[in-house]
């Protein structure tokens, strides 16, 4: 059986595992939000960064990239890798991925997606909503072992524009981060 992994954050820009096919598409009834705290990649326990998670949102869609892994051994290697990389994401869901806006039949059924839930009991790093200004300030300050938090945001903004997706939440945050940086002494 082939396996598909759907990425909506850093997985769009860098899979990090071997795959046979990459398909740009979207999932339904979710929106991408910078509500997850990152203490292991783009921040530290003292100064957590912010990364994206998915929030249920009826009628909305979230664009990303799906990766097909056919070989059983490659699937196991990818899963082991993702369990470490996405370890601050406490939920695994299986979603339908669509490529055409008017399609009723998905291009892929049951793609694996990692979600950081708002349940603070199991997801201690969850940060939740805040104003664009506050989220942007936090992103400007944070840096972790994978690099500056602002780099994560800018890479995501670029990757989304490359696939033709104008995500207002991401663009607003990137613009605010650029504004803050431009005022830095
Ligand atoms: C994803 O990219 O699908 C999950 C969030 C992230 O790792 O940035």
TrEMBL record:
CDD domains: GGCT_like. Keywords: Cytoplasm, Lyase. GO terms for molecular function: glutathione specific gamma-glutamylcyclotransferase activity. SUPFAM superfamilies: Gamma-glutamyl cyclotransferase-like. The keyword Cell wall biogenesis/degradation does not apply. GO terms for biological process: glutathione catabolic process. InterPro entries: ChaC, GGCT-like, GGCT-like_sf. Its main location: cytoplasm. GO terms for cellular component: cytoplasm. Its EC number is 4.3.2.7. The keyword Electron transport does not apply. Its cofactor is Mn(2+). Belongs to the gamma-glutamylcyclotransferase family. PANTHER family: CATION TRANSPORT PROTEIN CHAC-RELATED (PTHR12192), GLUTATHIONE-SPECIFIC GAMMA-GLUTAMYLCYCLOTRANSFERASE 2 (PTHR12192:SF2). This is glutathione-specific gamma-glutamylcyclotransferase.
